[in-house]
């Protein structure tokens, strides 16, 4: 195998995000549900001799040492693989959105190169590598919608009914570190249970990061207002600045403002690359 084209890297939404505490080492304890959606980046891989790793940006210019390149280098170093690769990237998921685009790209890169380079690493081995790249990467490698706890390392697969969502991303973004270090951040939300969440999954909970993000980035409030004007109860995903709302049959159409990104998305039952790396069982 020399080529792997049209490899998807789907975004995620946090249906809720509660901060339940903070560890002595400063890491925040959270509860959330991560849900895969069909807003995707697309990666193309060409195996090359000599061990070189190169990247071509087909849509948006990415940093030289982005998570895709770092994932490829990490996998190569971990395995001692002497093969190289050229990766072309069609970036569609917005940056600084709270949609996990960079982490998803890294996960899809690990899965694709594990196959292209015929490394035969198990999924758990890829997850350990992924965790070195970012806390959300193991979620995308597992490939299921999930209830997430701890500092993000406790991942429990859950089933969600098929649904559609409006997702809006204003032009400005939010720095995650700025939110987590903000003195106004709520850090003591009462822990929830999966059973309570499951009774009303698309109306449950809130995002503890949202009030701080709205203070730092007024565009978050504007985006929520756009959804509210269409009769939808919006919520921020992750650390923002993207917001989303569950669509129903009576949802009014939305005019996406100039320079914003927005679309209707469907959730995914499983990651499109589910099964690309075998489990240990």
Protein traits:
single chain; about 280 residues; alpha+beta; Ribosomal Protein S5, domain 2; Alpha-Beta Plaits; six-stranded mixed β-sheet; four-stranded antiparallel β-sheet; 8 helices; about 25% helix; globular
Summarize the structure.
The chain is α+β, with helices and mostly antiparallel strands and 281 residues long. It has two domains: 3-157, Ribosomal Protein S5, domain 2 (2-Layer Sandwich), CATH 3.30.230.10; 164-266, Alpha-Beta Plaits (2-Layer Sandwich). It is built from eight helices and ten strands.
Q: How does this structure look, described?
A:
It is built from eight helices and ten strands. It has 281 residues and is an alpha+beta fold. The protein folds into two domains: 3-157, Ribosomal Protein S5, domain 2, CATH 3.30.230; 164-266, Alpha-Beta Plaits. The strands form two sheets. Strands 1, 2, 3, 4, 5 and 6 form a six-stranded mixed sheet that branches. α1 (67-79) packs across α3 and α7 packs across α8 (218-229). The longest helix is centred in the middle third of the chain and has 16 residues, at 101-116.
